[in-house]
Amino acid sequence: METNDISIQVEDREGNVATLTAPTDMGLSLMEFLKASEYDILATCGGMALCATCCVDVLEGEEKLNEMTDDEYAMLDTLPDLLPNSRLACQLQLSPAMDGLKVRLHAEQ
Prior knowledge:
By secondary structure, the protein is of the alpha+beta class. 13% of the residues lie in helices and 26% in strands. Its cofactor is [2Fe-2S] cluster.
């Protein structure tokens, strides 16, 4: 039986780490998956790359992600504590290539 699930390791803001199984066949973004997994992600703009409240720091697997768009870069650039590995979870569509991704929820703004 072929599976469309991937493994993603998530570190919350308190340092707790969990390994989650995420489906790649439902068209979900990482933000939608994290919200469904009951992580404290505001996602105020609903995934339109307009608020940066779904920011995550990619700890491992950055090379597996799609290239950052100009809109995503512009929004991240507004964060005072931006890291080189920060991304907007709403702009990361779950895909089989992301298997093994490790992210940390970005500090609250």
